[in-house]
Amino acid sequence: MSDSNIGGEASILEERRRKLDELREQNIAYINNYIPAHKANELHDLYGHLSKEALEDKKIIDLSIAGRIVLKRVMGNASFVTIRDGSGDIQAYISKNNLDPDLYKNFKSWDLGDIIGISGNLFKTKTEELTIEAHSIVLITKSLRPMPEKHKGLADIEIKYRQRYLDLMSSPTSKAVFIKRSQIVASVRSSMLEDGFLEVETPMMHSIPGGAVAKPFITQHNALDRELFLRIAPELHLKRLLVGGFEKVFEINRSFRNEGLSTKHNPEFTMLEFYAAFATFNGTIDFTKNIIQSASKAIGNSAEIEWDGDQIDLSNFSTKALNDLVLEHNTELCAEDLNNLEKLRSYSQSLKLPFKDSWGVGKILLEIFEKTVESNLIQPTFVTDYPVEVSPLSRRNNENPSIADRFELFIGGKEIANGFCELNDPDDQAARFQEQVKAKADGDDEAMGFDEDYITALEHGMPPAVGVGIGIDRLVMMLTDQSSIKDVILFPQLKS
Predict the structure, then answer these.
(1) Alpha carbon distances (Å) from 473 to 124, 159, 337, 382, 490
(2) Cα–Cα distance, 318 to 325 (Å, whole number)
(3) Residue range(s) occupied by CATH 3.30.930.10 in the chain
(4) CA 480/CA 81 separation, integer angstroms
(5) Looking at residues 259-278, what average pLDDT do you find?
(6) Range(s) for CATH 2.40.50.140 in the chain?
(7) What pLDDT band is residue 358 in, cutting at 50, 70 and 90?
(8) CA 251, CA 272: separation in Å to the nearest integer?
(9) In this predicted model, what pLDDT tens digit does every residue of 431-470 receive, in sequence order?
(10) Which distant-in-sequence residues (6+ apart) come within 8 Å of 48 by Cβ?
C-alpha cells in the first residue's frame, strides 16, 4: 500500500471517528434494538417479477430491512442507496419529503459501509428496479474504515484471505461459494443419515499419531505433563466404535497435518470419514459416487461441470488398476518391470524422483504413479489395487496378498477420496505397525506410531468393514470451480 493510500485512509478514519463521537454524544451509537422483518432476496423473490403497475396495485407497505450501504447517490432532496444484507442487495429511495429534514441532512453524511435500517413501501422505478421508498431510516452501526472500492474490489489477494470479512462484504461471488460449501456439507450429512449411518465425534488430540501417513502437529498438555498430537485422521477411533458394536458411523471432522501450503493443501482441513461393517468394496465405491453426485445436485449443478478449465462428467465414473495406469502413462515400462526393484529404482532416477534405500517396490511404484499419472486423471476415476506397502491399515486382497483392497478417487487430476476394506487381523496390523515404527526410526517423520490399544481392540474382534475418507475442501473446490483451496476455506493458514 502506498503512502498516499495510507494517508488517505487515516484521513477517512479520522473523519468517521468524528461522526461517531457525535453519535455517542446523542447516545445513538451502535444501537441494538432494530429488528428487520424482511430480507432483500425475499422481496426480490416475492415481488421482483411484478410490473411497476402491478406492484402499485398490490400496495406492499410497512416493510423493514437492514443492511450495509454499498452504493449511495445523493441528489439534493432525494437519494438512492443500495444496501446489502445477508441474502443480497436491494435499492432504497430516500427523499427529504418523507423524512424529518434534520434526519435527511444527517443521512447525507452517512458513509459507504454504514449499517442502516430502512422502513417503508415497495415500488419499482422507471427502469423497473425494485426499490423501497423509505419512510423511516436509522443508522445502526457506524463504519469507521472504508469498504474496498466497488469496481477494483480486493486487488491484493493477501488481504482477501487475511481479512476475509472484507472479501465477503464486497464480493457476492465469494460469499456464494461459502453458501454453497454449507449446502454441500449438508448434502453429505444427509446422504450419510439417509443410509443409516450414525454421526459421532472422536478426539482431536491423540496420544499416538495414527490413522494416516502424515507428519503431525505436536502440542503439550500441561496438567498431565505429556505430549499430545493433533488429529491426523479420526480413523482408528472410528474403527474402535465398530469393535464396540456401532456398525455404520461417520464424522465430518477437522484434521491437521504438518505439511506445506499449496493450492491443494492447508494444514487444517475438513474430511468426511465413514465406516460400514459388512459392506462390500464395490458397493462402497458406488455409495461414494452417489455422495458426490448428490452434493453436486444440491447446489444446482448439472451432470457436467467445469473445474480449472476442464470439462468433467460426473455421470461417468471409471475404475482402473494402479499398475495398468502406470503402464498406460509410462510406455518405457512393461508389466514385469513393476515387480523389479532395481528397474523401478533406475526408472525413478530417470524421472528425478528421490527415493530411500528402505523403500520397496510398492512405495517406489506409488511415487511413479503420483508423478506421472495423477495429474492426468481428469474424468472421475477410482484407482484400485494399491500396494500393501503403502496401505498400512488396508486389508490384503484374497487373491493377491501384495495388493490391498483399496481405492482412491481422482477427479480433475486431484485426489478426492480414499477408501479400503479395513484390516481387522490384529497380528497383521501389529506387524504393519512395527514396519511403520521401523520406518520412523529410519527417518520417516510421516510414519505412524504403534497403537497398542488399537491392537487390543482388534483382538476383541472387529467385523469386516469398508471405510472411506472424502476431502470436503477439495470436493467444494471441484463443485464450485475454484482453483485454490484458500478460496473454499474461510480462514486459510497463510505465511507470515
Answers:
(1) 41, 21, 37, 19, 11
(2) 12
(3) 170-317+380-487
(4) 31
(5) 94
(6) 3-147
(7) confident
(8) 6
(9) 989 988 888 888 887 888 899 999 999 999 999 999 999 9
(10) 130
Instruction: For residue 150, give Cα distances in angstroms to 81, 108, 153, 167.
Output: 14, 19, 6, 11
170-317+380-487 CATH: 3.30.930.10
pLDDT value of position 1: 47
CATH 2.40.50.140 fits 3-147, yes or no: yes
> Partners of 9 in the beta sheet?
none
Could you report the per-residue pLDDT of 269-327, keeping only the tens digit for each? 999 999 999 999 999 999 999 999 999 999 999 999 999 999 999 999 999 999 999 99
Would you mind telling me the total number of residues written for the chain in this entry?
496
N-term to C-term CA, the chain: 17
Question: Nearest Cα to 304, choosing from 315, 292, 316, 313?
Answer: 313
Q: What is the mean pLDDT of residues 157-180?
A: 92
